[in-house]
Specification:
heterodimer, A: 140 residues, 6 helices, B: Aspartate Aminotransferase, domain 1, Aspartate Aminotransferase, domain 2, 2 domains, four-stranded antiparallel beta sheet, 14 helices, 41% helix, 17% strand
Chain lengths: 140, 406
Amino acid sequence: MSKTVEDIEKEIVAEFDIYDDWLDRYNYLIEIGKYLPLIDPTYKIESNLIHGCQSRVWLHAEMQDGRVVFSADSDAVITRGIISLLIRALSNQTPDDIMAAPLKFITLIGLKEHLSPSRSNGLISMVKQMKFYALAFKSK
Amino acid sequence: MKLSIEQIRSEFPILSQTAYGKPLVYFDNAATTQKPVCVIKALSDYYTSLNSNVHRGAHYLSIKASEAYENVRRQIQHFLHAGYAHEIVFTRGTTESINLVAATYGRKFIGVADEIIISHIEHHSNIVPWQMLCEEKGAKLKVIPVFDNGELDFEAFLNLLNERTRLLALTHVSNTLGTIVPVQKYIEAAHQCGVLVLIDGAQAAAHMKIDVQELDCDFYGFSGHKAYGPMGIGVLYGKEKWLNAMPPYQGGGEMILNVSFEKSTYNELPYKFEAGTPNVADAIALGKALEYIGELGVDQIEKREKELLDYLTQRLTEIPDIRIIGTASEKTSIVSFLIGEIHPYDAGTIIDRFGIAVRTGNHCNQPIMDRFGVPGTIRASLAFYNTTEEIDRLIEAIEKVKQMFA
């Protein structure tokens, strides 16, 4: 039995809780963003691109054994860090669980500002797009 | 400057705030400038003791409000050195000023296969209204290219001019690169071919002296909020002869003389272009802002901002890997830059956490980003109330960014 979205969210929050200082949290996020290979280059194409004014995000999704598998990338490292957290939480989950995912961890680890529409970094659209994919796979 | 920097900063209450527990450094003045106390007070004074609709009620308050509103129009006339107060039209901002010209002058005088010239360094708001007009009319948009240093190619512009050219819409100062465009020679050349010229003055007003008669431009637009005034009020200057020849912009009250169901006749200038209840409060507060600028002296502001520009440029140049986008010989205090290969969003996120407000992204200027092959830039835009100490703090933040993303 794989971990639930909720379990993973708790794990992430615990990892970030180690750091008191915002600078250390960002450093951790940058590390996550730097070293995680996220998307097959063949999927890094215009049709998978989510436009933001500030940074760009590519998102690919496919269905494997009733679960949605996401891969993604961004041209900005901080965005990539947050993406890898989102993928960790939502990838390999069922469409129902993805659609129901509260994604509270972003706020809990102090990165909520990156998911606000004013940042225009493609992340908020990415979350929407992940849920759309889940819905689309479910109704297939 | 007559006033000390402490005195000046004390006039801007927002500047003494903290952001993330650190003293706020506000370097996003090209997006909007902060407001001095006199402007903030003018807004509340208006609603406390003057609020009334203008030009219609023959009662005490309405007469007072109308006088105050029309005084600001005269003030703007002097600020721009325009010939007449009725050549000053109140708008919501530069964007509306440009759209007004596109929708009235453009609709009436630009037709199939006509050409409009803009430049590569225009803000989206001096691109899109013309694009929309061209689409509607079957006209063509031509673009003056930009050199690597951010200056426009004047020779290329001369080659774009032809008998089909109807209008040149050109920025006075680039909002991304800081380039001061020598608009006068563009205006002269355009006029020799009978081409009208609109100047987007959003980044120039309050940073340099503007004399529309000396420039001889046909239209000039600027925004109140980028000139220490409130948001939601702007200005369009137009030569009387063109404003008279143009059809009205929007229909409604105030812009008409007589209305019957058969036909309405339009009011005289400038009211023909000011349908509906105008933004009286913000206009009056803009008047205060211009008064404030006048007291400081535009030449003094220009001098101080040049010093800040030079200091910032010098400090940035000392850091290896800093790439300044826009190195024109004549610039305002706008500096766009990149730190090595670090994405502007990453850099901006960290700089923000140091309490420093810079803008990152494409600055409503996507064609420029494509031209320079960058995903965006970090833009620090300074105003006379900024200090060299604040610049030092930005430099420290940049050093930290370099460490974090190394």
